[in-house]
Amino acid sequence: MKHKFLFLAALALAAPLVGQAQQKTKVKVKPATAASSSTNAESAIKEADIKRDLFALAGDHFRGREGGTLDELKASVWLADQIRATGMLPAGDDGTYFQWFHLQRTRLTKASTLRIGSHEIKLNQDGAVTAPTNASVNAPLVYVGTGSPAELAKVDVKGKAVAVQIAGAPTDGISYRRYVFGKFAGQAGELTKAGAVAVVFVSDAPSQALYDHWSHVYERGRYSLPGVASTRVVSTPPVMWLPASAASWVQQPGQQLIANLQVESFQYPSVNIVAKMPGTDAQLKNEYVLFSTHQDHDGVRAPIAGDSIYNGADDNATGCAALLAIMRAFKQQPARRSALFVYQGSEERGLIGSTYFSAHPTVPQSSIVAVLNAEMMGRNAPDSAALLGSTPPHMNSSDLVKMALAANQAGPKFKLDTEWDKPTHPEGWYFRSDHLPYARLGIPAIMYTSLLHVDYHTPRDEPQRIDYNKLLHMTQWVYLTGWAVANRTAPPAREPGFKLER
After folding, report:
1. What whole-number distance in Å separates Cα of residue 249 and Cα of residue 247?
2. How far apart are CA 288 and CA 120, in angstroms?
3. Which of 4, 164, 321, 358 has the least CB density, counted as fewest CB within 10 Å?
4. Hey, what CATH class is 4-20+41-105+267-487 in?
């Protein structure tokens, strides 16, 4: 009841749903029979249903469903109503479809200021501070080129603000984005250790494209669950990122950097949506196959080509629509084990909903026998996909992987890209979705995806760009795997000695 006022606020934004999302649905569970353990209901998964649900969820009405906003809550109420209509039972808190948790957000206040010489930098417009920090700096600015040892040998950086030109390319297999972001910690850390009181990175031509696409993420600050170290208020030398247009004047000698940065930290709610279909077997119904996805995306941000709503059709309305379709199949034909469906909130804020649910599940943690995570399943070549968690060291259940591969062969027969699951892949994709917290707990977990594309985290990720026939086949693949897991007497075996590389 402590979150009742928040729930009512969300309901007020979705007036047609009032009184519906919380209704308990009576589900007639068929008795266990030989047929019920072998005959699936794949035919209940329909492309038209998936397309309808995806267009609704990824339309402008929900304004990009940013985690921790009323838009995420509004979309979550809509999803709960669709879930209720499938016949799934509530499995959240207090007999509802919802499990509430808090985000801790730490960001710079609007009163924070930054000036370099005669140039006033409007934060999050003319430049970004890469991490929230309390800092008061009034120091001479020195330009050190790319910050090579030879260039630094000519300058005493102690007590100074240091401007560095971003240059070069990764040589160790990581992506260019991770290479640049790594400088904000690595190179900046070396300079502050040498006595710099602030570090200013200036984009070159290649990194300007990265600045245009990603610098807006710093406006939000940092998010975590309350009490986690990453959101504590700190006082460290500030690290700033400027566009390439600043390169000409940043190099001018005799300039002073004056910064007054102030941090605020506060909490607000996000939500997981949880539903279940009870199993038909007297013993196995106490175990769960967990179907996982996330409902949030990036919300409303700086416009690109006149569009400011990051709709997140592929990321991850595809997973949301897929789970609704899988629910309809389990309603038509329940399995021996119970099916648990979890829409995890605030994934884009750092896997926060899945981190919370995996630690505080609404069913016994030990009863979760497998996690099948649906993440971005509707783009790229129609005959290709990937199964993350299928390659060591990411594979924590070869048994579960074999079942998923068999389901692929029995169903869509995708050509599987294994490169993205390797620890050497530059994107580190395995570590960026909601299966990860479960895998870290040792629960067999895999991720179904059609991988990144050029519209990833842009306003161009819209419903009309989805390959719905491919999404249908991806959904069938997830379902067939889950159906196999839910009906086999033995749960998927866990891999002995499983240990992630990071």
Report:
1. 6
2. 56
3. 4
4. alpha beta
